[in-house]
Amino acid sequence: MKKVIIWFLVLISLTALLLRFSNKIGEVFLGIKQVSGISILSDPSEATVSLDGKEVGKTPFEDKNLEVREYTIKLEKGDTSWQGKVKLTPGTIVMINRDLSHDQASSAGEILELEKGSGLTIISNPTGADVEIDGKLYGKTPTTINIASGEHTVLVSHTNYLKRSIRANLPDHFNLIISADLSLSEADLTAISTPIITQTPEVKVLQTPTGYLRVRDKPSLNGKEVGQVKPGDNLILLEEIGDWDRVRLPDNTEGYVSVRYVQK
């Protein structure tokens, strides 16, 4: 009876060890490697995907047979690019969605990662963004929210930044980590003060060999004559183009005069 109890306790201990270290034991003794995956979307699509400096394909991209570890991911298309790091969890897929841009301020996107636990963790750049889940306000980033598993719509917003709406599926027994980058919104032009123009730029017609100055329809001697002005006349200066000035005459006719015969 004593031996039976001892063997029973040994069996329980071995079972606990197998449950705790089953992945590692499988990898070491059975040659079974832990795998996970990465799924990447980008706007524009057809961006080149590199993992740890090695080109592996174009977006949309997915690989579900990756070794569980940290990866450096780079997306490139034309003169736009993005780079970031992700750490894979066994048996899960990391989702990456990026809007590629020429500059960091206009770049936006999110990374969705899973780890053992529960609820949603939302991180944002910039921090202090408002978080709404299924239309209900839950506070500001960074934050962890205890919420039921299933499909949710997460809205991340911040003053002067474009809102980011994210559809996410939270599995049972996992914590879903959402890392969102927000892009700056366009400047409100009505709030920008501009200097008041108090004087209209003008040019004065100088003496010419013919006693008048031709006004042409294009900045060239081949341009058609659309008018004539006399020395001493003042014309409104609209644009300076090399050897020619675009001007407006008193009768509102617009044309081009040679800079040789006018003076600001």
Mean pLDDT across the residues is 82
- Poorly predicted runs are 21-32, 188-192
What is the radius of gyration computed over CA atoms, rounded to a whole number of angstroms? 34 Å
Alpha-beta content class: mainly beta
What does this structure look like?
- The chain is mainly beta.
- The protein is 11% helix and 50% strand.
- The protein has 1 helix and 22 strands.
- It has a 7-stranded mixed β-sheet, with no helix packed on it. A 5-stranded antiparallel β-sheet has the order 21-20-19-16-22, with no helix packed on it.
- The longest helix has 28 residues.
Task: Provide a compact summary of the structure.
By secondary structure, the protein is mostly beta strands. 11% of the residues lie in helices and 50% in strands. The protein has one helix spanning 2-29; strands spanning 35-43, 48-51, 54-58, 61-67, 70-77, 80-87, 93-99, 108-116, 120-125, 130-133, 136-140, 143-145, 150-157, 164-170, 174-181, 202-205, 213-216, 225-229, 234-241, 244-248, 254-258, 262-263.
Top keywords for this entry?
264 residues; 5-stranded antiparallel sheet; 1 helix; mainly beta
Strand and helix layout:
Blueprint: H1 2-29, E1 35-43, E2 48-51, E3 54-58, E4 61-67, E5 70-77, E6 80-87, E7 93-99, E8 108-116, E9 120-125, E10 130-133, E11 136-140, E12 143-145, E13 150-157, E14 164-170, E15 174-181, E16 202-205, E17 213-216, E18 225-229, E19 234-241, E20 244-248, E21 254-258, E22 262-263
Parallel strand pairs: 1-7, 9-15
Antiparallel strand pairs: 1-4, 2-3, 2-5, 5-6, 7-8, 8-15, 9-12, 10-11, 10-13, 13-14, 16-19, 16-22, 17-18, 19-20, 20-21
